[in-house]
Design brief:
This protein has no helices and ten strands. With about 180 residues, the chain is an all-beta fold. It has a single domain, classed as Lipocalin, CATH 2.40.128.20. The chain is globular, with a radius of gyration of 17 Å.
């Protein structure tokens, strides 16, 4: 089956652009196609050895028939609902099963992570990372995503110095649609 090109309709909105539900996923997406849709759940984290905090999280993985997935993430504090972290970018699948993550964070970090699938776990590691002059000092990130049907669990490790990355975030999300 050939994917029909995605053509935004006159009624397309920023919410629907890039999230074309009736477009067949590009075959090169491979396992990334399993992530498509909206996810929501909860997580916990720690910054710089401080107190553990809880948050709500929403992810969207969308496509438009091309061999990549657009990604947006936002979080809010569990205790009072204030906005926390947000990031957006693209997940690119290689023909060999590799995955590239091209990502921008609202805190002034731009990064590329590379990796691949190990069973049901997608492992990604920093390949390149740049920070803006006012960004928090982030030097490396490691992400492990475990996909179990309609449940997505993850752990994110981060380094803010030359030390090895340490636990920063973990969460469990469920497919919302």
């Amino acid at each position: 089956m050939v994917a029909r090109p995605a053509t935004p309709s006159r009624s397309a909105t920023p919410r629907t652009l890039g999230a074309v539900d009736d477009v067949v996923p590009h075959p090169d997406l491979g396992r990334l196609a399993e992530l498509l849709g909206d996810w929501e759940g909860e997580g916990r984290g720690q910054w710089g050895g401080g107190d553990i905090f809880g948050y709500r999280e929403w992810l969207r993985f969308a496509h438009n028939g091309k061999p990549f997935v657009s990604y947006t993430q936002r979080t809010a504090a569990s205790d009072d609902g204030r906005p926390l972290h947000g990031e957006s970018g693209y997940w690119r699948a290689g023909a060999d099963g590799s995955v590239e993550l091209v990502l921008a964070h609202g805190i002034g970090v731009a990064e590329i992570e590379i990796g691949g699938w190990d069973g049901n776990t997608l492992r990604l590691r920093t390949e390149s990372l740049r920070t803006s002059p006012t960004a928090k000092p982030v030097t490396a990130l490691e992400r492990d995503f475990e996909l179990d049907g309609d449940t997505l669990r993850y752990t994110l490790r981060m380094s803010t110095t030359s030390e090895a990355p340490r636990w920063h975030l973990s969460g469990e999300l469920h497919r919302a649609r």
